[in-house]
Each structure stands twice: as C-alpha cells, then as structure tokens.
Specification:
alpha/beta
Length: about 170
Amino acid sequence: SSSSSSSLAAPVLSPSPFRPTVIELGCGVAALSGMVCAIKGAFVSFADVESVMSPLQTTLEYNLSQEEMCHTQCVPYVFGEPTDAFLSPVDLVVGSDIIYDGTCHDELISTLCRVTDMQSVVIFSYQNRNTVETTFHEKLEKYFSVKFVDGSELCEGRHPNIKVFLATKK
C-alpha cells in the first residue's frame, strides 16, 4: 500500500559515510522505500516474487539514474528461501504491508534472522487490519526487540491504522 511505503521513507534519509546495504522485502512494483534508499546512496536488493521482477525492473530504470541502478539488484524471492543472493548481514531491511498474511510469518521471521545481525535495523510499516499483525509481533519478539514509532513523529495527518515499527536482533 502506498500510504504504508511512504511512511518508511523518513527514517532512511540520513547520510552515511559508507554505502549501506538494504533489502526491501515484498517490494512490489512500486518499490518506493528501496528507491529512496538507492537515491540516498545505499546498495539495495529489491526482493519479491518472480512475477514482479519485470515490471519492477521497468520502474527502477524509469526512476533511478544509471549510477543508482549500478547499486541495485532485483531478486526473485519467497520468504523462508535461502538468502544467498543478498549481501548479508544487511544494514537495513524495509518492508511495507507484508505481514497481513499470517501463513508466511514464520518464513518471514526466518528470513529476517538470516539476513540481519546485531547492528541491523528492520523497519516495517503496515495497515492494521486484524489480529494477525499482533501474532506477527509476538513471534518476532522472540528474536528481535521491537519499538513502535509514534505516528506523529513521521507526518501530520497520517492514517491512524498505519503502524510503523523498528526492530533489532536480540
């Protein structure tokens, strides 16, 4: 959802003296958060199912410079699969509206555990729809410390059902 992905842009804008590594999980065709990271100088792996890869590549080519494109990769990926294609551990994992399906929570958490270390940060945003999100947080908190971001810190007028959290490995 576009309102969820725009909520992710604010925390990743600070400049860095090195090229951070980022994975945008479930990036979809829009891949807004990952593109912001690429524009700010990160090496970004855009990850989603195979059917998204061709339109995603078109989106990136249309919106990123050639130099920015040199620091990106599109990775066909399903949560829980081997993570060899990613430069792990990564500095940042972003995800927008990817926890609504409770059937893949264990696989998503497995992926997060494999691509992160103690210095990595996970930033997810989502629209709160039902209790499936609470179940995800309970599972995630076995491996990660989770902190919800006060929506008023991000932007005025944000939809109250859009939630953002930061997580770091325990």
